[in-house]
Write a structure and sequence with these properties.
Structural class: alpha/beta
CATH topology of the largest domain: Rossmann fold
Mean pLDDT: 87
Distance between the termini: 53 Å
Oligomer: single chain
Bound molecules: adenosine-5'-triphosphate, magnesium ion
CATH superfamily of the largest domain: P-loop containing nucleotide triphosphate hydrolases
Strand order of the largest sheet: 6-7-8-3-9-10
Radius of gyration: 20 Å
Helix content: 25-40%
Number of domains: 2
Amino acid sequence: MQSRDGEAVLSVKNLTKRFGSKLVLDNISLTIEKGKTTVVIGPSGCGKTVLIKHLIVLLRPNSGEVYFKDRRIDNLREDELNGIRTHYGFLFQGGALFDSLSVAENIIFPIRQHYTISSWKEVEELVKAKLAMVGLDGYQNYYPANLSGGQRKRVALARAIAMNPEIILYDEPTTGLDPIRSDVINELILKLQRELKVTTIVVTHDMTSAYKIANRIIMLHNGKIAADGDADHIRNHPHPVVQQFINGQVGDDDLAVLRMSGTISQAQFLPRDFE
Ligand SMILES: Nc1ncnc2c1ncn2[C@@H]1O[C@H](COP(=O)(O)OP(=O)(O)OP(=O)(O)O)[C@@H](O)[C@H]1O
Ligand SMILES: [Mg+2]
């Protein structure tokens, strides 16, 4: 399957997803190109996580299809999907590490799920190499509780790349990090794309990060793709919803809700230290 410019690695066709009566994705079609970084943006709750979970079939559509290369995958059994998933690395929202496992054990975890380990020396070397990529070689025996938020994200990233995936999905990789740590993650994403030629899909609210790493930015709104193009296309997009989102402006609907909610008590303006 070919997309506009390059080879398609993932594609969705007429994807619709509902939860109960709530329509989250409304007949979305999308092709992800090999070796490119595609960033998905959009307001909280608009379906970004739901969309990327369909790409790895952690969710199944109500209607529509999902393809990995030319193979339809949304209708595969779990055991068939396990084979397909070895091509993916993913860093989910919250980047959850297993608290009871050391950093090294966390990184080995996905390898153990898919392979029988024959040489521990090789595994040790692999863990060392992956941790070095995220600047954390030497932290093998630490436990997640003793790492900072940024270090935990980087370990989760090392785990995501443990099996040299062709595709990496990142859900909010920079959320909760300070600007410097966020930029370290941006640089890592760029480096992985450059050095491992991975196809990258990133969900983010962080427009600085989006502009820095994206070959293509897709904005979701009301279950549809509201904008799709490179950073300049998005910056100059005429749709007010896109401009409000990228400039962090409150829309008319949100303002109407605020007006309706009456006087806000002073207690809600206590400084963060008092929360
Ligand atoms: N398993 C589920 N069951 C029911 N509803 C769900 C489920 N997962 C997601 N939803 C709903 O689907 C909608 C989209 O959720 P999603 O997590 O994709 O939002 P998002 O765009 O990733 O938001 P955020 O930026 O806050 O992470 C929300 O209304 C959410 O409540
Ligand atoms: Mg989300």
